[in-house]
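FAQ
Q: What does a multi-component entry look like?
A: The components come first, one per line:
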Amino acid sequence: MKPRFLHLSLQEKVKEEEEEEEPEKSNSVAVEAGAAGAAQAMASGKKRKRKGKAFENVEGISVFKGSKPAKSTKSAGDVEGKDEVEKEALEKKELNRQIERDAIMRKKYGIHVSGHNVPSPLQDFSELNSRYNCGARLFRNLAELGFKEPTPIQRQAIPVLLSNRECFACAPTGSGKTLAFLYPLLVKLKRGMNDGIRAVILCPTRELSSQTTRECKKLAKGKKFRIKLMTKGLARNGDFEKMHIDILVSTPLRLQFAIRKRNMDLSRVEYLVLDESDKLFELGFVKQIDSVVKACSNPSIVRSLFSATLPDSVEELARTIMHDAVRIIVGRKNSASELIKQKLVFAGNEEGKLMALRQSFRESLNPPVLIFVQSKERAKELYGELLFDDIRVDVIHADLSQTQREDAVDNFRAGKTWVLIATDVIARGMDFKGLNCVINFDFPESAAAYIHRIGRSGRAGRTGEAITLYTEDDMPFLRNIANVMVASGCEVPNWILALPKLKRKKHRPTRESILV
Ligand SMILES: Nc1ncnc2c1ncn2[C@@H]1O[C@H](COP(=O)(O)OP(=O)(O)OP(=O)(O)O)[C@@H](O)[C@H]1O
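Then the predicted structure of the entire assembly, as tokens:
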């Protein structure tokens, strides 16, 4: 099903965007144009100055300054024309040099871009001040949070968003995408200038919304931003007409509820971020996303999509709704983080999986460990089994209350729980610092699910481990996962890579009960 917002006429949008861009341009040419652009913008700035000078020269000599024309066999026009040509050649040279410098830096960090006039990547965070005048407080917060160097996605996505360009970005799990979209928001929004809701960040789960809100508040420390998490209570009872929110973080369902039932007005939203965008474009979410995107009717809105996996279908969809978007891919598209050591383990059947898990815990348990299963029923069953082993174990799934879910995450983060059993509800975006190992007790339903699950470890430059158990039933789907493993530098037996290609991408078999 195609979302309705796709029917928005492109022509209409182009016109709207043109109207919007004017004030930004006049504010700061060099800043906003960025790019191979920084040079281009500089060049055009220079051009303007020089044109001014040229005008003064001609007029000055003959009209205002009253001085006599220089004695020359060549006419003033000839000299002027030559100067202009030389200057243009110089500018072109500088522009080419800048393009070369950008290309070298992108190559160094594995950044691939497409789009017109893409802003230059950041050399370091200090450029946020020199190039974009980002403000001392936000800059200090970066240092206080221990962020010394921008990650590759931050190097490219931050300048793009600071230049008010729409973008869709794909970078590995744990590579700092959150900061890449939060930081430009905080810079661009300045402080409480408008009423209503000014920026919306959509995340597929409550846990991720809550984590993103927390990160945003940390980054905005000392600034008076009104940053809100859309809770169930707020969605049901919020008086949004009287409320001023700079940044609202929500799941699509809660936001759609507030739009429908509480008449929430999103027409002044200036920035819309779709985090884990490919998940948000899946069938279960698409209607909600549609109504949110439609409600964000501000013609000047800047939208951005972020994920570690970006299927072509989502890219195509994104292209139809975005204007002049920049595409940023870090590393290889749809690949796992290279920091994770990945292993496939044959366990025969369902019974064998439990034995293999117990055996591995007996040999060495290096907490924290996250175990993924296919459904909430299976999560409950496995929890029931491990509860009697001498392990501090907990479980998280969609049947638990909000408080229980929050407690499960908090206890795991605090080290009170060593092993957390989970469904895919926390497979995306969750940042558990120092997670050593992910175990796929149940084989993931797709390559994308695999990438996100194992991506809970090996984050922010740390190494991690991922073990995937498989049974006879999972064998036909092994190749999908093996391809991901090979692409991220892991060894896989040749027979797996020689398995036939499957047309069906999703694998969610009926499994025997875990209970013994
Ligand atoms: N420049 C940086 N330097 C050091 N650490 C950073 C930097 N930027 C972000 N981090 C840290 O890296 C970790 C992962 O970041 P983040 O959660 O944004 O990853 P992500 O790319 O969004 O991953 P996912 O695809 O799983 O959502 C976080 O703990 C974050 O604090």
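Q: Is there any commentary attached?
A: Sometimes. For this entry: The longest helix spans residues 76-109.
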